[in-house]
Amino acid sequence: MNDDQEQRIVRVHQRGLDGLCTGCQVWWSRLAPYPCWQVEWATSRQARSLTVSLLGGSR
Question: Is the whole model's pTM more than 0.90, yes or no?
Fold first, then answer.
């Protein structure tokens, strides 16, 4: 690997605002299903948990 190749890697793999590599996020976003089902799962789980806690039930 030469210096030019190393510099290209360093330019692409920069930390974003969330601390994760922006180059890798772009690459993985191509492989992830759209829309992201994890968001739906997490929000429905939060809603169920909130409902249970408001009704006084156990998890």
Answer: no
